[in-house]
Amino acid sequence: MKYTYYGQSSFLIETETTKLLFDPFISQNPLAKDIDISKIEADYILVSHGHGDHVGDLIELAKQTKAQVIAMPEVIGWVMKQGVENVHPMNYGKYTFDFGTVRMVWATHSAGLPDGSYGGNPAGFVLELEGKQIYFAGDTGLTVEMKLLAELYKLNYAILPIGGNYTMDTDDAVIASNYVNCDKVIGVHYDTFPVIEIDSKVAIESFKRAQKTLLLPAIGETIIL
Q1: What is the pLDDT of residues 203-215, one digit of tens each?
Q2: 23, 73, 87, 142: most buried by Cβ count inside 10 Å?
Q3: Which helix (H) or strand (E) holds 105?
């Protein structure tokens, strides 16, 4: 299984059969200027919430790839108004797709849409894919609801925001990794704006002191999960 980082909270997970794109915000991100979105392929696009830094390229990529968009009903309503019809609305529940199982889980954040309309609830996802269990927290602060995931899953990876200000920072993400009982963390939602810039070396050391691994792939880099 492969993980490719596109900056902010956007990434692609590739299984043997399926390409899953998350929170596509690429062309508007100066840090991702070398990513050519016309070359991105996806079978599904999963959206944690409707903020611009998570849906910036959603409509263009949904039309380009013909991927099915998975998101909260309010986000799906906005997507359909933009002419995208291949959709699957979800809320805080679980559904089995042809590639595996997705559970939409709680995130503590806000959630408007680019046109100013109501965006429903923010969310994260737990994926069960090819024998692995992966948690993408979306945009969230530290919340005790994360502890429930340790009872439901044996997570192989947790993809957590670490930039602070709008979400958890590195210290909170270490606590979150304890809550969900996962020792391998991939950091997202950092460095894109001045208020979420981090010292990557300090962040990695913070996780190392907790006897955990923080992975920070470069934008455009692919790692094996």
Answers
A1: 999 999 999 999 9
A2: 23
A3: strand 100-106
Supply 125's token pair: 């996802």
d(CA 71, CA 124): 10
Cα 199 from chain centroid (whole Å):
21
**Contact by Cβ (8 Å): 192, 54:** no
Which residue type sits at 57? D
| 81 Cβ contact partners less than 8 Å away, ≥ 6 residues apart | none
pTM: 0.98
Helices (H), 21-72: 52-55, 58-65
The closest of 117, 124, 18 to 71, measured between CA atoms, is 124
Q: Which pLDDT belongs to residue 144?
A: 97
Residue 208 corresponds to which amino acid? K
Of 125, 134, 136, 133, whose CA–CA distance to 103 is shortest? 125
DSSP-H helix ranges across 57-209: 58-65, 73-81, 147-152, 170-179, 200-209
Query: With contact defined as beta carbons under 8 Å apart, do 57 and 65 qualify?
Result: no
Q: Cβ neighbours of residue 179 under 8 Å, at least 6 residues apart?
A: 142, 144, 146, 147, 149, 150
Nearest to 107 by CA among 158, 167, 164: 167
- Do 151 and 145 form a contact (C-beta atoms < 8 A)? no
Helix axes 170-179, 200-209, angle to 10 degrees: 30
Tokens standing for 54? 């998570």
